[in-house]
Amino acid sequence: VKMAVDSLKRSNLNSFKLEIGNAVFFNVVLGKMDIAQTVRADIINCIESKNYAALGDLLDKIGDTAETRVIRRLPRLFGDASVIDEAKKLYSDSAFQQALQYLQTVYNRLCDEGLEDYIILDLGLVNRSNYYTGIIFHGYAEGSGISVLSGGRYDNLLGEFGMPAPAIGFAV
Prior knowledge:
Blueprint: H1 2-9, E1 16-22, H2 24-31, H3 37-48, H4 52-62, H5 66-73, E2 78-79, H6 82-88, H7 94-112, E3 119-122, E4 135-141, E5 149-153, E6 168-171
Helix pairs in contact: 2-7, 3-4
């Protein structure tokens, strides 16, 4: 993540931000829901495109559960470390709580490195690529309406190609 910030710093951009989330949040919550893969994909697409009206309609069809309440709230949690405290109150699942704690640790380390002005926590950050297993991030530059950098942790992907190993990477 620090390397991603350094890459954007060296790109002579006027201003940029790196949004950081954790793929585990939605994987834990969606994994507890009895829904078809197509519905899961639709939920992720609505969140990724920030289409909250369509997300609400979709979740209304599923019903009011602890999981649908979390999914409604997480995409609206972005900003500084206070969003983690708010998210801790949403869902008591231990894997969910561990993912929040890990994100807090990463955020604290980045702040210790003096990078807090470049970082935004986004608990609603999701990615259609389902191979991400942890931290995910997107870089945004002033003047661009699309991400200029994206990446994350993908610990299981290399194993699918015969070389199991933890990994993290990004593309600019």
